[in-house]
Amino acid sequence: MFGDPLLVGGIGLEEVLIVLFKTVVTFGVMLGAVILMIWFERKLIADLQNRVGPNLAGPFGILQTLADGIKLIFKQDLIPSKADRIIFAVAPFLAMVPAFLSFSIVPLGGDFQDKGGVVSWFGRDTYFQLADPQVGFLLLLAMSSIGVYGMMLAGWSSGSKYPLISGVRATAQAISYEAALGLSLVSVLIVSGSLSTHDIVASQAGEGWLGIVPSWNLVVTGVVPFVIFLIAATAELARTPFDLVEAEQELTGGYNTEYSSIRFGHFYLAEYMNLITMSSIMVTLFLGGPAGPIFGPSFLHPVLPTVWFVLKVLVFLFAAVWTRATLPRFRYDQLMDLGWKVLIPLSLGWLLLLATIQVGRDQDWNLAIVILISLGVLFLGTALLTTAISTARRARVSEEVS
């Protein structure tokens, strides 16, 4: 929060009230986005599968999510007799809180072209984000790690074998993809030079190369970290095709099988909060966040950055729904192989490549030679790793046959 100009010069009652107002706005935006996202997913999947989808509660069924939430509130709350009652009650909140805390460091608006992302609220300069800690990057990594505890503890505390298996799967899946996700984020850190999400967006603002290609980290880092982050984030969210945590054919309903009433609603809410948060994080780190061209009448200028942000996030949300309606679920061994044998080596190799190029720039080396040597080493490492994996696979097959 210390990067916010609102807090420069001391904290008084006025600053506290504005921060409280920003908290309410951020929570309201998140809650409203979740309600709309649930409706959007159900409606879009229905269209993709040639069905009608929600169409009775409100215009185009848009109030269906609200109706489902009210129904869950009034349903009977059941707790299994063998459950750990305290952990069973706390687990849903451990799934929700990290998502909101991660979303709180996302810039939602502000003119990054001319004003550095500063907006004026109640006569005071501030950022259109709840908090801008100088270690926002590390906070994001911490929250993504903590989020899995909700699923893990829900499965463990239920006193049932299927939720327990789901909790173990969630833990293994998070560990497998957390390293690749973190390494892809370090690539962004190298090119942006800051841990602050606001500074990362500011570094991507501007006209870009030749006034055409934007200076987004998607381009600057060479696309590969973005692809790795996208795949790893999908696995962290346990979304299709990595939704083995909730594989209904094997685990009934997964870690939340024993949950009912509003406790189940908390997990349902957390799932979509995490999806929206992770989409917002991807836009912030790789696609310039709310930064975009400002044009038209002057009264539209304060709104356009938020419009650009929403449009970018919608692209990822649409892709997530489209993926869910299209792709089959991975086998568990394929899930592990992709994380450990592909994404982690690739993210580590690309990180070393970007670091070498950065050092070459700082030391005024010949960048063409640096890039060629680095790519050669990268390809050699890929060939050695592929050979080792193939050899191990053939040895395993021969042992099974014999």
Automatic annotation (TrEMBL):
<keyword id="KW-1133">Transmembrane helix</keyword>
<feature type="transmembrane region" description="Helical">
    <location>
        <begin position="86"/>
        <end position="106"/>
    </location>
</feature>
<keyword id="KW-0812">Transmembrane</keyword>
<comment type="function">
    <text>NDH-1 shuttles electrons from NADH, via FMN and iron-sulfur (Fe-S) centers, to quinones in the respiratory chain. The immediate electron acceptor for the enzyme in this species is believed to be ubiquinone. Couples the redox reaction to proton translocation (for every two electrons transferred, four hydrogen ions are translocated across the cytoplasmic membrane), and thus conserves the redox energy in a proton gradient. This subunit may bind ubiquinone.</text>
</comment>
<feature type="transmembrane region" description="Helical">
    <location>
        <begin position="272"/>
        <end position="295"/>
    </location>
</feature>
<keyword id="KW-0830">Ubiquinone</keyword>
<feature type="transmembrane region" description="Helical">
    <location>
        <begin position="307"/>
        <end position="327"/>
    </location>
</feature>
<dbReference type="InterPro" id="IPR001694">
    <property type="entry name" value="NADH_UbQ_OxRdtase_su1/FPO"/>
</dbReference>
<keyword id="KW-0520">NAD</keyword>
<keyword id="KW-0874">Quinone</keyword>
<dbReference type="GO" id="GO:0048038">
    <property type="term" value="F:quinone binding"/>
</dbReference>
<keyword id="KW-1278">Translocase</keyword>
<feature type="transmembrane region" description="Helical">
    <location>
        <begin position="16"/>
        <end position="40"/>
    </location>
</feature>
<dbReference type="GO" id="GO:0005886">
    <property type="term" value="C:plasma membrane"/>
</dbReference>
<comment type="subunit">
    <text>NDH-1 is composed of 14 different subunits. Subunits NuoA, H, J, K, L, M, N constitute the membrane sector of the complex.</text>
</comment>
<feature type="transmembrane region" description="Helical">
    <location>
        <begin position="175"/>
        <end position="195"/>
    </location>
</feature>
<dbReference type="GO" id="GO:0003954">
    <property type="term" value="F:NADH dehydrogenase activity"/>
</dbReference>
<dbReference type="GO" id="GO:0016655">
    <property type="term" value="F:oxidoreductase activity, acting on NAD(P)H, quinone or similar compound as acceptor"/>
</dbReference>
<keyword id="KW-0472">Membrane</keyword>
<feature type="transmembrane region" description="Helical">
    <location>
        <begin position="215"/>
        <end position="235"/>
    </location>
</feature>
<feature type="transmembrane region" description="Helical">
    <location>
        <begin position="365"/>
        <end position="386"/>
    </location>
</feature>
<dbReference type="GO" id="GO:0009060">
    <property type="term" value="P:aerobic respiration"/>
</dbReference>
<feature type="transmembrane region" description="Helical">
    <location>
        <begin position="135"/>
        <end position="154"/>
    </location>
</feature>
<dbReference type="Pfam" id="PF00146">
    <property type="entry name" value="NADHdh"/>
</dbReference>
<keyword id="KW-1003">Cell membrane</keyword>
<protein>
    <recommendedName>
        <fullName>NADH-quinone oxidoreductase subunit H</fullName>
        <ecNumber>7.1.1.-</ecNumber>
    </recommendedName>
</protein>
<dbReference type="InterPro" id="IPR018086">
    <property type="entry name" value="NADH_UbQ_OxRdtase_su1_CS"/>
</dbReference>
<keyword id="KW-0560">Oxidoreductase</keyword>
<comment type="similarity">
    <text>Belongs to the complex I subunit 1 family.</text>
</comment>
<feature type="transmembrane region" description="Helical">
    <location>
        <begin position="339"/>
        <end position="359"/>
    </location>
</feature>
